[in-house]
Amino acid sequence: MEQPQKLTDRQALVLDAITEHIQGAGYPPTIREIGDRLGIRSTNGVNDHLKALERKGYILREDSKSRALRAVFCSDGRRFEGSPGAPITEELAAIEGILDIPVVGRIAAGAPIAAIEHTEEYVKIGESLLGRSDGLFSLRVRGDSMIDDGIHDGDYIFVRQQQNVRDGEIVAAMVDGEATVKRIYRENGRVRLQPANDALAPIYILESDARETAVLGRVVGVFRRI
User: Fold this and answer.
1) Among residues 88, 119, 153, which one ends one of the domains?
2) Of 42, 51, 182, 208, which is the active-site residue?
3) CA 112 to chain CA centroid, nearest Å
4) How far apart are CA 105 and CA 122, in angstroms?
5) What pLDDT does 135 receive?
6) How far apart are the C-alpha atoms of 51 and 10, rounded to whole Å?
7) Is 56 marked active-site?
């Protein structure tokens, strides 16, 4: 194979990130992983670099999936001597369907507790389990008020950001600046946040005070580490 075209400095850094990840992990990094390593906030920016690397012959890709790529050359023009990366297969391509859900803090399944607003970590989960990925975030549960609905202390709940929810749905809500998870009901001029634990009382908010109660979103999944 003929010597590939010369790379820009940025393209060389992206290629180095790919080859070093392959050598360390045995498979290529995702677009997000490349961006996190190099401080590139836009996934489109990373993808543009990958397109340039593919066009110049340094990598091979299938269907623009970052994991489904092979390293052919190193950034200095030498042929890549390590494992080129996992083979391009449907199974490998499916890895690109794994979502990185940000864990933005804690939430009370009991009395409301202050929510941490910054992202603490990410939970990886298959896109097919939660549906579309837009507007998803995760919170760690503290307390036992939702145990009858299968939500336990230490669980991660997945929340889809939305304010329009139906009565009876499990929601993450802010009450007086603090976060809690409950079933929501609107009745007789008030909002009832109902726990799923007979030992605990519901939280009632008058409709006139409802502006102080912001629904963060609907709970669409629960994750528990065993």
Assistant:
1) 88
2) 182
3) 24
4) 11
5) 77
6) 13
7) no
Domain span including residue 197? 98-223
Q: Read off the pTM.
A: 0.54
Q: Does residue 222 carry a pLDDT above 50?
A: yes
What radius of gyration, in Å, describes the C-alpha atoms of the chain?
A: 23
Q: Active site residue: 65, 138, 145, 208, which one?
A: 145
CB within 8 Å of 161: residues ≥ 6 apart: 135, 136, 137, 216, 217
For the question of residue 182 being annotated catalytic, the response is yes
- Helix, strand or coil, per DSSP, at residue 113: strand
User: Does residue 114 share a domain with residue 29?
Assistant: no
Q: Look at residue 198 and give its three-state secondary structure.
A: coil
Average pLDDT over residues 86-105: 55
Q: For residues 26 and 28, give the distance between their C-alpha atoms in angstroms, rounded to a whole number.
A: 7
Phi/psi of residue 14, nearest 5 degrees: -65, -45
Q: CB neighbours (10 Å) of residue 177?
A: 10
The packing angle between helices 43-55 and 31-38, to 10°, is 100
Q: Which residues contact 62 (CB under 8 A, 6 or more apart)?
A: 68, 69, 88, 93
